[in-house]
């Protein structure tokens, strides 16, 4: 059952991204404070994740945190504006593998678990983020 979100990422990555129809996901995630806790938890999980921590050693973590909060907020239908680079531009030349990507998704899921976010709500966020996968993974 825990593999369901990862399977959804794979299945939904080919779907066209549509704007959120409402802000219910934003509210279900705890609005901006809840999204911030999820992002910070994910970054702490990455810091302990030997599989991918090296990829983040030379990254401005504060900026990454801020841009992820913006992005998750927008994707959840919240009243935010994403001011970062596109996913393709942000990950250009980084040679992110499928296993790197999957590790990050696992760290995100663990952060949502830690915040008590239900699996259906987790799946809704992952479904919103999944179409970005091809822009992150090196072909």
From TrEMBL:
Record flagged with keyword Transport: yes
PROSITE patterns: PROKAR_LIPOPROTEIN
Sites where the protein binds heme: 91
Pfam family, one: Bac_globin
Record GO terms (molecular function): heme binding; metal ion binding; oxygen binding
Range of residues in the leader sequence: none
Alphabetic keyword roster: Heme, Iron, Metal-binding, Transport
SUPFAM superfamilies in UniProt: Globin-like (SSF46458)
Keyword Ubl conjugation: no
Xref: CDD domains: TrHb1_N (cd00454)
Protein's name in the database: Globin
Gene source species: Pseudomonas fluorescens
């Amino acid at each position: 059952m825990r593999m369901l979100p990862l399977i959804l990422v794979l299945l939904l990555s080919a779907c066209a991204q549509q704007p959120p129809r409402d802000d219910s996901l934003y509210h279900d995630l705890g609005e901006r404070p809840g999204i911030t806790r999820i992002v910070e938890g994910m970054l702490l999980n990455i810091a302990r994740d030997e599989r991918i921590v090296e990829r983040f050693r030379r990254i401005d973590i504060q900026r990454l945190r801020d841009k992820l909060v913006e992005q998750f907020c927008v994707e959840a239908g919240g009243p935010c504006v994403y001011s970062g680079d596109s996913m393709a531009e942000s990950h250009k030349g980084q040679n992110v593998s499928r296993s790197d990507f999957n590790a990050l998704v696992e760290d995100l899921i663990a952060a949502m678990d830690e915040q008590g976010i239900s699996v259906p709500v987790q799946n809704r966020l992952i479904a919103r983020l999944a179409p970005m996968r091809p822009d992150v993974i090196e072909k």
